[in-house]
Amino acid sequence: MSGDGSSSRRFADVRTLSLLFRTVSNMKPRQLAGVADRKLRHAVVPALPVDFDARYDRRVPDDLSCTPGPLRANTTVLRRSLSGADRSAFRARAAEATDGEATFLDRTIRVEGPDGVGWHDEAVYEPPALWALKFHGFEFLRGAYLGHDDPTDCPAATETFPRWLADWQADESTNIGTEAYLRRAWTPHSVSFRLLNAARYYAWLGADERHPALAARLQRLLYRNASFLSNHVEHDIGGNHLIENGIALVVAGLLVDDAGDPWVDAGVEVLVDAADQFLADGGHFELSPMYHVLTLTRYLTALDLLRRYGRTPPSEIRAAAERGTAFLRAIAPPDRRLPLLNDSVHGESLSLRACLRYASAVGVDPGPSATTAMPDSGYYWLGRGDDALLVDAGGIGPPHLPAHSHNDQFSVLLWVDGRSVLTDTGTYEYAPTDRRQHTRSVAAHNTVQYGDVEPIDIAGSYLMGRRFDPRVRHGVVDGVTAFDGAYRRVGNDAYAHRRRIYAADDWWLVWDRVTADEARPVRSRLHVDPDVAVDGAADTGAAGLGFRTDGDADPLAYLYSLEAAETTVGTSPYFPSFLTEVERPSVTLRSSGADVSFGFLLSKRPYETVALERDGADPRALSLDGTDRSLPDLDRLS
């Protein structure tokens, strides 16, 4: 047994190294140079007999001044874009700070005691690492400026937070150049958050007029952090990190008079260069709706603030904001909640509704969307209005940045009567745990799996192996909306998967074919919203299951298995926010072989009999209670 375990571990290590090599080989030269630079600084700087913190401190001019009015106005617009419930939650976070506590990622820690704030306490650095990043990014300040209109209504704003900021600046463990500084207090991503939060807090508080001593402290903090960030832009990571760096430099530079101009220029340059992260259809190239909202919010802020401070926004920033907003309208589901595709959760970005309100308030409003195809991002709607099915048919994110992508090829999400029925899985954490592996795996998505094979190999927190580009067609044929997608996995455990979907007024037919050299089990999984129960009420017919919500006399929708050898109902985990796990129903259709075809019908109404006529593996007609519906030839799709 010990020998088997050792062999397994060696195999896992070899496999991980292989995926690491493939990931690194896809990285851009500037990324690799940034990685080398970061590692060199991290290893060398703490060992040098130089006080780098004092060096940055000496750069701060004695005559700093700020213009907070435009930033205060933008913060008001942002706050008013939130729902009442969101603002109430922010107020609760600010209130708990008066008791010495901070909450991020649904985890609360007592951070202040008799000896001050424990910036480097052991609890701060317990998983997930994102908790410490937010804490050192002063995310606790958001509860004040996003929860309250008037600072005098927030005791933490004028009592607790000034004390915490003074403690930060007096604590030598938070100095630049200390051991592990680039992985702790001075992680550039955290510095970006710190700049944004400190700047908004300064402007909202009216620090210049009401709290001059605090204003002076904040001005020095802003200058030191912006100077540091301008020397540590995250070209090694790229993606949404770059956009966070860019907006932080823009906000700090606009707030700080004159001395901040170089930061504005540097931040604008970063945002202009990163604008091509928004694809032609407007989706952010990491293919996560959560990161789409996070990055879009930054471009909307840059657009609004540059105008408010009397500057002309570059066309690239304006275009990215407009494309990104149009995409968000296009992907908005019937319940107007963010679909948790790829690495997405609720609560870490603005809600979908709040982001659209913010966009409209800063002058970006493309109007209602009738778009059903977002081919660059790989999302396709079959049905619109209150009854809609969304197909995730995109490839993996950019080759040099697969970090937030999942094995969700041709996964489907369903809404009926405006309510979620079939969901994605969300994300529990980013650490390389079993939960992380599950959320990225094909088993966590509403699609087909051949044997125990992952379509694309995954390992660690973010590694992915050899990829493929799915072939997709989508459109309307003979009055039926249709989707046709296919991909082929090559190498070991090779197989091919083709998924065809047909949609009429009140039903969706999903048909899968898997072909391989070796016969193995083939499973099609459907993960159900946790607020929906799965039952087999008599009126659904012998092969039917009902999706029912509390208080509804009849099911919202029905599921009919078509030619699967077995259909079972179980449960699966759902991660709607970080560190939150909810049990929900799931349905698995199962068959086996080397050439397997089966599928299912989703319907708003019950049927006594459901049958499929096919020509080989190709569906030809659907019979519902004896009434035949011809299915179009999908080769006619463009």
UniProtKB/TrEMBL annotation:
It comes from Halogeometricum salsisoli. Keywords: Lyase, Periplasm, Signal. PANTHER family: HEPARIN-SULFATE LYASE. It comes from the Archaea. Residues 368-578 form the Heparinase II/III-like C-terminal domain. Signal peptide: none annotated. Residues 626-638 have a biased composition (Basic and acidic residues). Residues 619-638 are annotated as: Disordered. Residues 166-354 form the Heparin-sulfate lyase N-terminal domain. Its main location: periplasm. Coiled coil: none annotated. It is found in: Periplasm. This is Heparinase II/III family protein.
